[in-house]
Amino acid sequence: MSYEEILYSVRDHIATISMNRPAARNGYTLTIAAELGDAFTVADHDPDVRAIILTGEGADFCVGMDLSSGAPGDEVSEDWLEPAGQCSRRIFECTKPVIAAIRGAAVGAGSTIILPSDYRIAATDSRFGYVFTRRGFFPEGASAWHLPRIVGMGRAMDWMLTGRVFPAAEALAGGLVHQVVEPDQVLPAAETYAKDLIEHTAPVSVAVTRQMLLRLSAFDSPYPAHAMDSKLIAGLGGSADAVEGITSFLQRRSPDFPGRVPADIPAVVPWKGIDQADTASTSR
């Protein structure tokens, strides 16, 4: 794929999407927002892709919105979607697992677009910050929804109200990131995690489980989740993936699951294909 401000590649069933403005420390732009949204859509619809890595070129992941063009003005329409949310919303909708590989600064948009990812790996030199209150801005990227679900309301209040920048060690202790490694090991660690998923898990099962966790855990009772469980489990009798999972386990070999995403996602999944149709790039 050819883009202006990001890089996109696929190798060994892993799509790597990298912000590519290293001279500007990957300052977030409208172009990056649109291109990230497109790249995630391409990866999501490619049956050869099993996992997606989001990263940044150079020493920093992303230092936040490039403010040189100023803030949005009166020219935006009612259905305009702010740029960080365009990316985080598309990641939320993904049927493939998303791994954020973070080096250096991940501030502002750099701290919000990683939140819907499934696994976040930081470098020892990483720094995070929801700095909006220190700029007179407001939270973006739907971070007011995502962050408390990941780290709890108390810690989210601390980080968002103060807008302070904090190190990787605090991010790890708070549950924002899952792993901290040396800077030159961030991308290899992300690839190792992706390869483990590819080798041992069923693509359709991962896709459905990811969306179940994101969409069902917010209900005020377990009943909606159990209703979804029941529909899915009822269909396992005709599942080639389930047969392969049991057979490979009994034969003590690595599985070779035949199901593909998105084609083989069960029809009973209510959100299949809904969000993607509703999410248009409205950065005009």
TrEMBL record:
<comment type="similarity">
    <text>Belongs to the enoyl-CoA hydratase/isomerase family.</text>
</comment>
<keyword id="KW-0443">Lipid metabolism</keyword>
<keyword id="KW-0456">Lyase</keyword>
<dbReference type="GO" id="GO:0006631">
    <property type="term" value="P:fatty acid metabolic process"/>
</dbReference>
<protein>
    <submittedName>
        <fullName>1,4-Dihydroxy-2-naphthoyl-CoA synthase</fullName>
        <ecNumber>4.1.3.36</ecNumber>
    </submittedName>
</protein>
<dbReference type="InterPro" id="IPR001753">
    <property type="entry name" value="Enoyl-CoA_hydra/iso"/>
</dbReference>
<dbReference type="Pfam" id="PF00378">
    <property type="entry name" value="ECH_1"/>
</dbReference>
<dbReference type="InterPro" id="IPR018376">
    <property type="entry name" value="Enoyl-CoA_hyd/isom_CS"/>
</dbReference>
<keyword id="KW-0276">Fatty acid metabolism</keyword>
<dbReference type="InterPro" id="IPR029045">
    <property type="entry name" value="ClpP/crotonase-like_dom_sf"/>
</dbReference>
<comment type="function">
    <text>Could possibly oxidize fatty acids using specific components.</text>
</comment>
<dbReference type="GO" id="GO:0018812">
    <property type="term" value="F:3-hydroxyacyl-CoA dehydratase activity"/>
</dbReference>
<dbReference type="GO" id="GO:0008935">
    <property type="term" value="F:1,4-dihydroxy-2-naphthoyl-CoA synthase activity"/>
</dbReference>
